[in-house]
Each structure stands twice: as structure tokens, then as C-alpha cells.
Amino acid sequence: MAIVEVTVVPLGTEDASLSKYVAGCQQVLVEEEGIEYQLTPMGTIIEGDLDTIFAVVKKLHETPFDEGAVRVSTSIKIDDRRDKEASMDQKIDSVESKLEQG
Fold it and tell me: Which member of 47, 53, 61, 81 lies 3.0 to 4.6 Å from 86 by CB, making a disulfide possible if both were Cys?
């Protein structure tokens, strides 16, 4: 299972506020099956099958265009571990357990 951080930035908008575009992208994620996601102040973390995530990222990239943006910059960071099962929660739990030990 892959974990992907995605940041979609609409450019060429009439307003400096981007929350309506973020809300549009989050709606795409709400409707998508087969993934888990977590909204953060600077992007979104998505967990699932890599092919599914790539398809979702394309939808996220297109969403601001559908809402009037004239340019969109999308960045993705992929963590694809194949030697053992990984998840967002597992990664956080691993760090927290080390903090408790130390």
C-alpha cells in the first residue's frame, strides 16, 4: 500500500483565498472508494493502491480547472514500501512509540 502526499495549488484565481478549491478537492476524496485520506493544513495524505491514487491525483488536479482556475500546480510525494505493510497510522504509531521509549 502506498502513502502519497499531494498538494494542489490553483493559480490565476480572482481571490487569494483557496479554501473553495480545497473543499472541491476534498469532495473528490469523499466520493472516492478504496482510499483513506487525511487533510492537513498544507496538503492531503492519501493511502491506498498506487494505481488508484494516481487516478485520484489526476481528478484532484483537474478540480480547480473545473472551478475556474486558469493554471494549477500539483506536487506529489510517494512512499511505497513493499517489504511490509505500511499505513499512515502505523507510521505515526512507530514515531510515538520511540518517543515513549526515549
Answer: 81
Judging by DSSP bridges, how do beta strands 2-11 and 71-80 pair with one another? antiparallel
For domain 2-101, give its CATH number from 3.40.50.10750, 3.20.20.70, 3.10.20.600, 3.30.70.930.
3.30.70.930
For the four alpha carbons of 72, 27, 7 and 50, in that order, the dihedral sign comes to: negative
> pTM for this one?
0.89
What Cα–Cα distance (Å) separates residue 8 from each residue in 20, 39, 87, 91? 12, 12, 22, 23
Between the alpha carbon of residue 34 and those of residues 2, 75, 93, the distances in Å are 12, 21, 22
pLDDT at 86 exceeding the cut of 90: no
What is the tens place of the pLDDT at every residue in 59-69? 999 999 999 99
Q: Quick one: pLDDT band at residue 73, thresholds 50, 70, 90?
A: very high
